[in-house]
């Protein structure tokens, strides 16, 4: 399982997603250009020392990401989806792709997605915060694929399989 961030705009969201990824042992791809320097103190503050515990790769462009991407389906989280999160069946090697906070992704990126899914929400509202969306979608994907986690006491829990 991987998270891919397409040209993120807000360093605090990126830092929060890196922290999420560290805690859930999920790798992250950051596709540039970003709306901030990746060394931005705001990103590091949001990610805290967790950033040092996440496997993340920086890609200089969308084209470089496509050349270097890991195997697995590219699953785009978008408000322009034809399928909802809870009805989608995730696979362990899926790459969860999230667009820019300000603009989502352009049509050519949309076209590369193997699947497009949306997080259902109240009518009339535009979207959730990027870090919140990444948290919801990543947790659902991990639950469905039966990924395991370790509790604070060191014991291992198996995350339930199937839709929650």
Would you write up a description of this structure?
- There is one protein chain.
- With 164 residues, this protein is of the alpha/beta class.
- It has a single domain, classed as Alpha/beta knot (3-Layer(aba) Sandwich).
- The chain is 30% helix and 21% strand.
- The chain has 5 helices and 9 strands.
- The strands form 2 sheets. It has a 7-stranded parallel beta sheet.
- A hairpin with a 5-residue loop joins strand 8 and strand 9.
- The longest helix has 16 residues.
- The radius of gyration is 15 Å and the shape is globular.
- It starts with a strand and ends in a 6-residue tail after the last strand.
Short description:
This protein has 164 residues and is α/β, with parallel strands linked by helices. Helix content is 30%, strand content 21%. Mean pLDDT is 87; it is low at 159-164.
CATH class: Alpha Beta
Largest sheet: 7 strands, parallel
| Residue fraction in strands | 15-25%
Number of helices: 5
Oligomer: single chain
Q: Whole-number radius of gyration?
A: 15 Å
The tally of structural domains comes to 1
Overall residue-averaged pLDDT value: 87
Q: How many DSSP-defined strands?
A: 9
Helix and strand string, N-terminal first?
EHEHEHEEEHEHEE
User: Which stretches of 5+ consecutive residues score pLDDT under 50?
Assistant: 159-164
Q: For the largest sheet, list the strands in their spatial order.
A: 3-2-1-6-4-7-5
